[in-house]
Amino acid sequence: MTDELAEELRRFNGVAASLFRAAAAHLEMPATDLHAVDLLASTGPATPGQLADLTGLTTGAVTGMLKRLEDAGLVRRDADPRDARRVIVSLDPDSRRLHEVERVLHAMTEAWAEAAADLDETRAATLLEFLKRCNALSRGEIVRLRASPSPGEETASSPVAGASSGSLNVRGASLLRLLADRTLPELYSAHFDGPAPTVKASRGSITMRYARRIQLLGMGRQSAAITLNGRLPWRISIKGAASMIEADLRDLTLTEFEIDGAASSIDLQLPACTTVVPVRISGGASAIRIRREPGAPAQVHLKGWASKLDVDGQASSNVGNNVWLQSSDYDPSGPYYAIELASSASSVTVERTNAG
């Protein structure tokens, strides 16, 4: 009987997952996004790291998911009132789209409630306790699986070891995702899909270098997802051609950021700043998007050329050759991001995270 129950529970999980996929398809959204909305509705606001633990997704995948949910108006990201450098994700109660999603989720809940309506209180209490234990075991299994590398995936990390600041240098990653986590106990944690780079870490300084022969021969993609300890200030340098660079650094203190190399897509999310922080991009890109937290003014110096340049709504077409623009809250005597674009790009957007 126990084996039969366990097998039926496994089938229930499979059917429930299929039901979620069907509901997501009906709502025209990815199933992982609907899962995240359901988790936020049932457990309340969470950090991106907590969502990664609850969904079983990598931190890089959660970053992309939250961007989609935010663009759809389903969630908002706010600074933690207890720690302004920590991000809290919550559902947007005023979202019309959220009301549509909740109607579908509520219909699913009502169907299960109807199935349990014939149970007496004793049987219902037993079933409730059993499901709570199963949920706790599943959450523990998610954590275990996420801590274990997938087939073909390599990992790396390093202890903080008394470091007071961090420096990250990456060369040759074709797909690069950067995140920050203030709860991370290590100096950094990295996952590599495909050929792994040579990694050296010493006294807060991390260097990751992919073999040049792999880059020249095109031997698979060099994908790296790197999470940095958000309690330390960081200097970040990325060199070499890449197809995509994504960096969500809102839980980080950033002292300097540099990209030197061509890229198809660059998407940066910058934290609030307390000093003048240089951000330099050179090498060419198809699309560059830089978003800043409130309290992070910007001065933009376009040394190259852009088909479209938009700085906080100040839009221009076919511009270049020493163009300067500032955000409306820019003060030369105060903290700000000094953004230098020495490359050419089809589209450059610099905006606040709460913009439109």
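The record above closes out task 2.4. Task 2.5 opens with a second protein, given below.
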Amino acid sequence: MLLSVLATLALSGCAAGTKTGRPVDSVVFKKPVTVGLLLSQKAAALRVEEGTWSDGVEIPPQVVTASRAGKHVVLRGADGEVLAEAGMLTLRTTSPKGIGVGKIHVRGEVSLVPEGAAGVTAVNRLELEDYLKGVVPGEIGKKLSKDKLEAIKAQAVVARTYALKKVGQYPGRAYDLLSTVSDQVYSGLSIEDPLCSQAIEATRGLYLTDGNGYADAYYHSASGGRTSSIQDAWPGKPARGYLRGVVDSAENGAWCRKASVYKWTVEWDEETLHKAVAKDLTEAMGKNPGNIVVKGLRTDGRDSSGRVRKLLVETEGETLSVNADRIRWALRRGPGRDILRSTRFTLKHENGRYIAEGTGNGHGVGMDQWGAMGRSQAGQDFETILKAYYPGTKLETLAD
């Protein structure tokens, strides 16, 4: 892991036509995380605000561009002037607007590191709690009502646990997390929300442990009334007692029943869906597209949560099987190829059309976000919510 590299590398810079003065002091992060924002770009554009420095050189407010020159990163101003050059450059700012990277602004500092043969990667290094402020609103929602605060607290704990578990997952890279759905969607200052920030501060340092370290804190949008065991959703992954399927309903219905995706229907004409499934099988199995001609589709079996175990695909030569959560990728919903909302559905075939009727949204493992909000509105606190979705785990606090 290159976290120590970002903290200890000694860098030099050169400037032309920039103001001089006292640079921003090096930031000491107590609980840092590193997030890869722009990966292996030939030219990475950043927006610097007043009070921004690059290794001792003050950068006037403007859009700057980072690119490669051999093993060095070169920072150029809007007029093409070279502002700084080094084996790695780090931008720091005193501006409350942070530093603009791509379409977002971020807290902390941004390091520009060489990656690949001729690319530059922008890495945001910041406090864990500040990182969460750029994650939680995008995951559970902005401008939520105060009666959902306990659900937001639960989301903060889960997102914190998820991030801690992932540190070190990309050996040899300058970052621990990606800003995309590959990890958790991180949108920096651009998405911060007062109620979400309140929930993060109220749970500062809290994470879930399974007794052997950080828990695998998976979460999803809506369970449809029952969550899924991890081994059912993703065959091949080991079973975990705290990631077993649980009944996610009260006497008056599913906790997630207020979700817009609680109940849904999708229809396809036969030819369109057959071609979509053939395309997915081609991508997933590496088969020649010309060798797959889909003749029919049907489901086979259900797990204890009511989710479909197998999608059987009848072709001209054989019957192929798509299993568990992977079915959502096979049954794309439309021209944008959005995946099916969940595998908790029934599939009918009549009059040349397929009709899927289902409940819930997501893989179904771990915390149901809409369910957590329903529980919060009913008066459950965040600890009760977490115990419901991760039975057997415990809350611990990070050491200072």
